[in-house]
Amino acid sequence: MSDEEHHFESKADAGASKTYPQQAGTIRKNGYIVIKGRPCKVVEVSTSKTGKHGHAKCHFVAIDIFNGKKLEDIVPSSHNCDVPHVNRTDYQLIDISEDGFVSLLTENGNTKDDLRLPTDDTLLSQVKGGFEEGKDLVLSVMSAMGEEQICAVKDIGKN
């Protein structure tokens, strides 16, 4: 019996870890919010006064952190919004495969081979150019809601 309960808890925990609730009135500019199921960074917040139906409303303008699309949402300030858990991790670049995947070295010495090259042209040229020149590159990977994407490159010097 206890094995079954434990299994259920771990299942629920995995799904719940993608987002957490936060009151709409407490979300600020440069914070994160989920709009239409996408993790976004808030670029603008405006709050309307309470109307005759009693709720002040928050108008959020946000940019999707993975594809850069602008999204908007209006939520009563007393209601909860989903906020994504956003993590940023640095990995050292080992190799770039011909099919556009990168091989990265994790902190514990394993490799991570499931990330594609960035779609952003300037970032892509920095990664490819630096790799071809033999530079030691560290890639910052942003992850949220089960998605990951390379978001920055740092040169840590030559070999």
TrEMBL record:
InterPro entries listed in its UniProt record: IF5A-like (IPR001884), IF5A-like_N (IPR048670), IF5A_C (IPR020189), NA-bd_OB-fold (IPR012340), Rib_uL2_dom2 (IPR014722), Trans_elong_IF5A_hypusine_site (IPR019769), Translation_prot_SH3-like_sf (IPR008991)
Q: Which GO terms describe its molecular function?
A: ribosome binding; RNA binding; translation elongation factor activity; translation initiation factor activity
Residue intervals of the Translation initiation factor 5A C-terminal domain: 85-154
Chain spans, region Disordered? 1-21
A Pfam entry, by short name: eIF-5a
Instruction: Give any single GO term for biological process.
Output: positive regulation of translational elongation
PTM description: eIF-5A seems to be the only eukaryotic protein to have a hypusine residue which is a post-translational modification of a lysine by the addition of a butylamino group.
Compositional bias, Basic and acidic residues, is annotated for 1-12
Q: Which UniProt keywords apply?
A: Hypusine, Initiation factor, Protein biosynthesis
What is the documented function of this protein?
Translation factor that promotes translation elongation and termination, particularly upon ribosome stalling at specific amino acid sequence contexts. Binds between the exit (E) and peptidyl (P) site of the ribosome and promotes rescue of stalled ribosome: specifically required for efficient translation of polyproline-containing peptides as well as other motifs that stall the ribosome. Acts as ribosome quality control (RQC) cofactor by joining the RQC complex to facilitate peptidyl transfer during CAT tailing step. Translation factor that promotes translation elongation and termination, particularly upon ribosome stalling at specific amino acid sequence contexts. Binds between the exit (E) and peptidyl (P) site of the ribosome and promotes rescue of stalled ribosome: specifically required for efficient translation of polyproline-containing peptides as well as other motifs that stall the ribosome. Acts as a ribosome quality control (RQC) cofactor by joining the RQC complex to facilitate peptidyl transfer during CAT tailing step.
Q: Which PANTHER family match?
A: TRANSLATION INITIATION FACTOR 5A FAMILY MEMBER (PTHR11673)
NCBIfam families (UniProt xref): eIF_5A (TIGR00037)
Family, per the entry? Belongs to the eIF-5A family.
* Name this polypeptide is given: Eukaryotic translation initiation factor 5A
